[in-house]
Amino acid sequence: MKTTLFSAFAAGLLLLGSVIAAPLEPAKWAGVVVDDESAEYIGKWMRTAKQSFVGKTYHHDGNQDPGTKSARFTPDLPEAGQYEVRLLYVPHVNRATNVAVSIFSDEGETKRVVNEREHPLISGVPRALGVFRFVAGKNGAVVVSTAGADGFVVVDAVQFAPIALAQAERAAVKHLLAEPRQVRHSASSPAHLRVEWDDVATDETGYRIWRREADGAWYLAGETGANATHFDDGGMQEQTAYEHKVAAFNATGEGTAAATSGATQTLRMEPHLKPEVLISAGRTFPSGPAAVTLKSGELLLAYQTGNAEQRRNHMQASVWTMTSRDSIRGWSEPRLVLTGGREVIFGKCALARLSDSRLGMTFSRWTCDEKGVIVGRQRQFISSADEGGSWSEPVDVGPMSANNQTLIIGDRGRLLESLSGTTGVNEIHASDDLGGTWRFLGTVPGKGLGEASLAHLGGGRLVFLSRHEWPFYRLSFSADNGSTWEKTESLLYLGGGDNPPKLTLLPDSKTLAAIVHSWHPGKKTKDRRQLASVISRDGGRTWDNFHLIGFAPDGEDGFLQHSITFVGDTAHLFYSGGSRLDTNDGKDLRVLRLHQDFFTSTTPWPYDWQGRALAQPKK
């Protein structure tokens, strides 16, 4: 138990997740602080030796056996009086929004509900559960229960601040992180709302944006940098009302949040981009498309087929190619490249033009058990000197797998791919001899990573974007051609982080585009019914300009395993369609054509393939 008197200002900056960048121990805390190490626990709680606000640990319930666990914090108060009671915890998007807390004081029992996804500090001072009268000694307590919790319940400490000191703290920081003004909605689509506000804070690191649906629980929607005045919040349902609130934050915590005056409803989905079906629905289940431009100006398209209807039975998965004809308006007959059987199968191709003018293709070689379940993974490389007519013998890349269209050319012709397995680890493998040999460069920092996309910005600067078990995508950056990667936790806020993303540079070679799925709470995280683009003009550090590409509200027409290839100023977006909520890998193969202006246009939805305003039929 800690009984010293001092300020809470040194409590650290909370980044999204459970990472606190400041020192583990706050310099001083006002009043009496009962650490998690001094609490009395009922049920099995887990002690986590990670950064926390107080001490070197915090405890959590493991999100298991709800209603059977509690933590009791009993202070030893030096004198009777009025105390402001504050619960400290390490927030995260997987925390419970309805943590039950009981305060036992001289006034009896008072119940509170705490949303542990919200930052516990406001301008460096912990949020208050209320002011209560206590007698001296160990007569009061705060009990945190897991009853009815909708996520992880976390306890770090409980603070009992004498009312005079609490009021002095709040008065001292009243001027910090000024509350945003005129929080409002605009520029919406069926899948997103733009949240706008007047920036009046002067010392913020950035803004956090929260949203809720139908008076439900608030949850984190995203985060911006300093001086921002808007945020495109994607991953919503059509014709559904949402509220937002916005708060400035810096190293002392969050300022007071300001909310929209009411809820705003997203628009009704209208057809606005029409795909072309390349391979109709049948028994082949085409998926995993990848394309590369041929010397003729046409496209070579690779894809896989297999028994994807069974989902867990991958037998017979094989790789095929087709060549476009008539200015990419027609296609040749499919050509079998890699034949899968009962035990060995192939898929998830990626294509690139090598610096010696050959074509390079990476693909996953999987081994299956007797039920067709994948039990072994290997990534391999082949090349073609005759524009895909014939291919070399396979060369091993690494003992893991990858998503489709993941092969890129880095600085000095280096071939790079991001490989992933089933343990949340992502490795970068490279070849400096045009695919002849490959080596492991290193691991991208972070846990729970999955299939990823890479982009080369020039000069050896690389961007990594990965699916993640969080509802957000995970970003990382390399300045040395993939040899090392930043350890800073960086996220792309859209939702849908458990779906594979894609990165591409627009033809201006400066603007980076991400093609991503988005989702909404209450649905499967692998829900792939929405597809959207966002762009970055600063190398992937900040993202903006949400553009809805497709939305299938009824779930019968998803967007699976997409890939994007530019020919001149036009992107060809290939994907598997006709699915229902990711129950298979697509029933047909489709392509959408998007002009480069589509990604950068600021025209409100709906827009055409060039980003121009789309005339709507009269009602």
Give the arrangement of secondary structure elements.
Blueprint: E1 32-35, E2 40-42, E3 46-48, E4 58-60, E5 70-73, E6 81-88, E7 99-105, E8 108-114, E9 121-122, E10 125-126, E11 130-134, E12 141-145, E13 154-155, E14 157-162, H1 163-172, E15 181-186, E16 192-198, E17 206-213, E18 219-223, E19 230-234, E20 241-250, E21 253-254, E22 258-259, E23 264-265, E24 276-279, E25 287-293, E26 299-305, E27 318-325, E28 330-331, E29 335-338, E30 344-353, E31 359-368, E32 374-384, E33 395-398, E34 408-409, E35 415-420, E36 426-431, E37 439-443, E38 449-458, E39 461-468, E40 473-478, E41 490-492, E42 502-505, E43 512-517, E44 530-536, E45 544-551, E46 560-567, E47 570-577, E48 588-595, H2 596-600
Antiparallel strand pairs: 1-14, 2-5, 3-4, 4-13, 5-12, 6-11, 6-14, 7-8, 7-12, 9-10, 15-16, 16-19, 17-18, 17-20, 20-21, 20-22, 20-23, 24-48, 25-26, 26-27, 27-28, 27-29, 30-31, 31-32, 32-33, 34-35, 35-36, 36-37, 38-39, 39-40, 40-41, 42-43, 43-44, 44-45, 46-47, 47-48
